[in-house]
Amino acid sequence: MNTFPSKLSTAIVATGLGLITLLSPNITFSEDTPSKQKFDVHVNIDGTDTMMYSKNSFEVKSGQKVKLTFKNIGKLPKVAMGHNIVILKNSVDLVKFCNEAVKFPTNEYFPKGLEKDVIGRTKLLGPGEEDTIYFMAPEPGTYEYVCTFPGHFALMKGKMIVK
Question: Which of 7, 94, 102, 111 is the least buried, fewest Cβ under 10 Å from its Cβ?
Answer without folding.
Answer: 7
